[in-house]
Amino acid sequence: MQLIFILEQVLNGLLVGSLYLLIALGLSLIFSLGGIVNLAHGAFYAIGAYLTVALADHIGFGGAFLAAPALVALLGLVIERFLLRRFYRADPILSLLLTFGLAMVAEQTLRMVFGAAPVPFSIPQELRGQVLIGDFIYSRYRLLILAVSAAAVLGLWLLLSRTAFGRVVRAGVQNPDMVAALGISLKPYMSAVVAIAVGLAALAGVMTAPISGVHPAMGAEILTFAFVVVVIGGLGSFWGVIAAAFIVGVVRGLAAYFYPPATEASVYLLMVLVLLLRPRGLFGERIQKFE
Amino acid sequence: MSMTRRGILAASALGLAAPSISYGQSDVIRLGHLTPRTGFLGPLGEYAVQAATLAGEEINAAGGINGKRLEILFEDSVNPQTGSAKAERFVQRDRVAAIVGEINSATALAIAQVVTRERVLFINTGANSDTLRGSDCQRFMFHVEGQNSMYVKTVGRALVAGGLVRGKKSYALTADYAFGHDLLRVARRFLTENGGTISGEDLIPTDLTDFSPFLLKIRQARPDLVVANLAGAQITNFLKQYSEFGLQFPVAGFGFDTALAWGAGQGNFLGTWPVMWHHLIQAPSAQTFVRAFTAKYNRPPENQAWGDYLAVKLMARAMTETRGTDGIKIVEYFEGEGRVDILKGREGYFRKRDHQLMQEAYAITALPAREVRNRWDIFRSGPAVPGPDEPLDAIAATAEENACTFR
Asked: What keywords sit in the KW lines (chain A) (predicted)?
């Protein structure tokens, strides 16, 4: 009997992992190509959630689902063009300070505009309900999240591995000087990568808004987890991040089952273990410019 | 900038010479307001700050305190370490006459230690732990906020009446910090004394946002009652996800703040919860406060706003009555157990034995979705507890349950 319960936690962990995934992938992309640790990544997730609440009254959840990530991607373009771009080759501490500052500005702006109290938002009536598989009950809405995440990840993978755009991005990750020597400017690619990455974070925000409190600090809450996922998965590794997101989800679920006070701590413990045994992360590649 | 006595003299002299510069310090009474503005209790801190601001404005509009203007300084208390440092700065640098606020029980204890050392008054407006009124009680600390025992006994009565305690098993989710541990202890005592059992109890990290693993565990345990000893943002997340998973076990909370239910959204509020105050209380002074707050901030006040509004008003009143800001005199004034209007049906008083405000509380129950008319009126309130023919301290911890000796 207990085995079924544990299996239930494992499955749930996999589903929860899919949410971390969308944020962690973007974080990893921006770091791999631009060398910037984007501490403001969680802010885009929060802005995505708030935009959903603001837009849903006018264009419905479906409309907000499409519009919010697109708007946040646009915002990302602007921030890349006028701020991030100045820091690709600079001392990493500068971009850390910049994005840390941006995250605080964003959180405080949300607090000023929407207030500190959580903003009410619910799952749309037509998406509510539960699915029962044997004795395993699950929220229909969360299965939808899983499907959307899977589609987004697949799309991103196809973009990176099957298109000319993806080839340049991958080359830029490995050896930007060589790409430049071939006469290709990485700037427009970097803009596109930032837009995609923050768009994915916003997508995660849109999907979380109905099931989690929408409040100004929500970005900071998720960012740490996303970082842990990237560190465990290994920098620059697409599949590493995916594997790590699922592992983190499952470890968290098992901790909740066996020793609840460690639900969140278990994830950090896992990170420490990985760093001790495999400092590059599970699937981390050797990236020349970071060696 | 620290003000010496000589500095004050110089400043007043300057003030006389050039009255347009500013108030000299002697024309102002300062209160320090400390409360979490960020983190998992941040949503409540905002109400606290707004309400204290409103109270300050009303006091000044009515002529201030003993002819002096009241100035309230606001700080984010963040955590026990920062809260303690800021309390110290309020006292030593800003020379505040008293400190008001706080929500986190661990931080309230840290502030209490500072005010005891500095002999300055502190009115706690949001920290619930019984230990703050028991083993950790301090002569310079008073509590407008109800204690955990009051919350548990209030909602407990409703649960006992509803047949959810005797012979029934509960599953408790508890916030993993000072407040939660204290509440779990009090809740366990109440449930066992009334013939119930706790079949499962999980400590929930305060930064946890996803309750799905615990919802699955609850479903496996099939309890008769789910007990939420949660705090801050946890409550909003719990409500949203409990309704997402469609679990049908009755829910009761032993700690609660209305703003967190407002923030959950349509159709997500369920169960029975305790509050010290809510915006539907019909007492005239309560409704005057609701109107003033709503006019200023465009939303009704909730229990946290009430606590900070009341605390500032009580402090101003004590300073007026004692004709000064002397900490000892104010302590003695409050210990006189004089009855005052606390924006409820029945007047309240600070109990001399532990400095807890003796007051009515309410068990509120979520309205079914189809009966909800607007964003705010999402619950119906049970009668005030204790009832009109009971003593006001009937729901507070007894001396045996929670002994306090002031040092």
From this structure: Amino-acid transport, Cell membrane, Membrane, Transmembrane, Transmembrane helix, Transport
Is beta strand B357-358 parallel, antiparallel or unpaired with respect to B362-366? unpaired
- Looking at the predicted structure, is the pLDDT value of residue B159 above 80? yes
Closest by Cβ to B219, choosing from A137, A212, A221: A137
- Judge: A264–B208 Cβ closer than 8 Å, yes or no: yes
- Do the strands B121-124 and B98-101 form a parallel or antiparallel pair, or are they unpaired? parallel
Domain extent for A257? 2-290
> How high is the ipTM of this complex?
0.92
Query: Quick one: pLDDT at residue A174?
Result: 85
B214–A119: do the CB atoms touch at under 8 Å? no
By C-alpha distance, the chain A residue nearest B267 is A122
Rounded CA separation A102/A114 (Å):
18
Bridge partners, residue B226, by sequence:
B171, B251
Is the per-residue pLDDT at A36 higher than 80? yes
Chain B residues interacting with chain A (CB cutoff of 8 angstroms): 37-40, 42-47, 176, 202-205, 207-210, 212-214, 216-217, 219-220, 233, 236-237, 240-241, 244-246, 259-260, 262-268, 375
The helix, strand and coil proportions of chain A, stated in percent and rounded to the nearest 5, come to 75, 5, 20
State the total domains in chain A.
Answer: 1
B181: its two tokens? 């541990």
Compare CB distances from A261 to B205, B213, B241 and report the shortest one's residue.
B205
Mean pLDDT of B137-164: 96
Long-range contacts at B156-161 (CB < 8 A, ≥ 24 apart)? B156/B190, B156/B191, B156/B194, B157/B363, B157/B385, B158/B252, B158/B272, B158/B363, B158/B365, B158/B382, B159/B225, B159/B252, B159/B272, B160/B194
pLDDT tens string B101-130: 999 999 999 999 999 999 999 999 999 999
What superfamily does domain B149-277+361-395 belong to in CATH?
Response regulator (3.40.50.2300)
In DSSP terms, B68 is beta-bridged to: B65
B13, pLDDT greater than 80: no
**B31 strand-pairing partners:** B72, B98
Predicted confidence at residue B269, as pLDDT, reads: 95
3-state helix, strand, coil in chain B (%, to 5): 45, 20, 40
Instruction: Give the pLDDT band of residue B20 (cuts 50, 70, 90).
Output: very low
User: Under CATH, to which class is B5-147+281-358 assigned?
Assistant: alpha beta
Q: Are B102 and B308 within 8 A, CB to CB?
A: no
**A116–B42 C-beta distance less than 8 A:** yes
Q: Which of A215, A225, A257 to substitute to test the interface with B, most B CBs within 10 Å?
A: A215
User: pLDDT tier at B18 (50, 70, 90 boundaries)?
Assistant: very low
The predicted-structure confidence for A102-143, as pLDDT tens digits, reads as follows 999 999 999 999 999 999 999 999 999 999 887 778 899 999
Spatial separation of the C-alpha atoms in residues B217 and B228, rounded to whole Å: 14
pLDDT of B23 higher than 50 = no
Residue with tokens 């309400």: B51
pLDDT of residue B25: 56
CATH number at residue A185: 1.10.3470
A7 touches chain B (CB under 8 A): no
Q: Does A137 touch chain B (CB under 8 A)?
A: yes
Q: Do A139 and B244 touch (CB under 8 A)?
A: yes
Interchain contact, B237 vs A213, CB within 8 Å: yes
Q: Which of A140, A115, A142 is nearest to A50 (CA)?
A: A115
Residue B365: φ, ψ to 5°:
-125, 135
Task: Break chain B into its structural domains and give their ranges.
Answer: 5-147+281-358, 149-277+361-395
Sign of CA dihedral B246, B252, B255, B259: positive
DSSP track, B272-307: EEEES--TT---HHHHHHHHHHHHHHSS---HHHHH
Q: Do domains B5-147+281-358 and B149-277+361-395 have the same CATH topology?
A: yes
A119 contact B CB<8A: yes
